[in-house]
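Usage

Read records sequentially. Each one opens with the input sequence:
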Amino acid sequence: MAKKEILTDLWVYELLKEANIELHPQGSNIKDISEALQSASKAGTGNVGFPEYCGVVKDFVLIIENKADVSQHIKRNKEGVICSEITSIKNYAVNGALFYGKHLVKSTSYKKFITFGVSGNEKRHKISPIFIDERGNYKELEDVETFTLFNEKNIDEYYTKSILKEQTPEEKTTEEVLKDAKSLHEALRNYGSIQDKDKPLIVSGILLALREMEFKNFSIDSLTGDETSTDGEKIYGAIEKNLKRANVSPQVKKDKLLSQFLVIKDTKAINEVNEYLKKTPLKHYTEFLYENIYKNIKYIQSPEDYIGRFYGEFMSYSGGDGQSLGIVLTPKHITDLFCDLAELKPTDSVFDPCCGTAGFLIAAMHNMLQKTDNPEQRRKIRKNQLHGLELQPYMFTIATTNMILRGDGKSNLEQEDFLKQNPAQLQEKGCTVGMMNPPYSMGSKNNMSLYEINFTEHLLNSITKGGKVIVIVPQSSMTGKSKEEQVIKANILKRHTLEGVITLNKNTFYGVGTNPCIAIFTAGIPHDKDKEVKFINFEKDGFEVQKHRGLVETIKAKDRKQHLLDVWFNRIESETKFCVKTIIGAEDEWLHSFYYFNDEIPTEADFEKTMGDYLTFEFSMIMQGRGYLFDNEKE
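and closes with the structure output:
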């Protein structure tokens, strides 16, 4: 038993190391805590007692008590309260951790304690945190998979969200953005009757114009409603100057962008003084965007795709989901996850052939820029290492504008039909990573080229040998029910390697009604028939739907994501209910649900409960005169 507990201690040590948390084993190097532990015996003798790990992160004391077997995780009394008698404290992880926490509350000057009962091993385990305040009151918190939430970077957010039950500043900012999107949508509708596809064009065009304020080429005060030189003409002129300043080339590309922004100066209703507003709707939109959005984009260094968020909100308020305009926006947490799964390096070149508002490229740009301090390397990332295609003219304009607003990187965006491009020619760009959210549900037997799996094959053929390709597609594209899709899947395996498929939360694209998954490939290397492929069930990702807010990140999301990455990169083993590793064929359904089998051995308590339930059922049937159902000798 002692040897097993040592293995648990070592596994916990690795978890702490990965989370960048430094705790002291078997005692403490902090004088106040070390002195208090001299009388912390779990037997209540007043002698010395040590938890497995103890230390301080910011102003929180963290205490960890381990047990080798999950059956020794926690002991409760009949009322459901954690037992505090000596036997339970000695023999159960949570009970022991809580004991040490309460002891240190009384014996030290610290005011915030988080204790952890940990049991099991890397494959099957439980980690249960409990918060204790300076009065000794405690609160049980939701189990976690890692200690990521408790490092210096995350612990304040965890405390705010999980213990105080308050919003973080980031959440407040996001909520304000959503409210602003609703307000601006209503203004666009009420004061201009703007079409859905033109709304984000007006937003992005005004944001470009606002950039010229720094160079004295544009002023909100200049928007006077003059009929000779209209507000739209002034904004359009500032847009033209800013595109020139951003070195958008070639000229044909700049002309395409400007043609889309003509809606700003050509729409009569938004260039006339509104009786209610006492100014033109364009001026009203410009003032609103300056105060609520431009300042965020300019001063907050985050990969958050603000224009993309606005676009999504516009569509939802319009009573649609954006599909009628051919776009399903990828949420920020998914674009960030793609970067982590790809293990992006500052030397990578990223290609998104269906780039929409450029969410993947923005996330990739920020991810790579954070990994280098070299000014020349950072310049190359922006100028040479981000490539995108977008078929729809208005989305191409929004993507280019978004890249300009978020720190350049627009040089290699092109308005083209991806499927009409020669993949061998695209491969000459030297892109090492492909990321894609292709159009959904467009393929059919009459037009097989629009199957999502065909987009995937086309992207794989466009990336350099050994490069990573990651796509988010409906689960149906991984099952490949039609003969045509089966053929494409077989072709993929002949030339490329499937690394794994991650089944996602069904609400990832909230409101769209798509059950998505992420597929990860290595391009240009044929799939070895003996290769073990990972299939992961990541439906419980820590995101949930909340009324009036849509899909919202809970505090569990960071922990769940870290666990996913640990399993994906083979840092830990996992139960098959989370991850199955198996060989595959083209005819298989490439999803966790297809390969999953329950390899968990039931506990004695589980067995007793199942038998008890069955005997209760059989007794009930006999009492109802239907016992003959259990007599094999009778007809």
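Summary fields computed downstream for this record:
- The CA atoms of residues 621 and 627 lie 6 Å apart.
- The radius of gyration is 29 Å.
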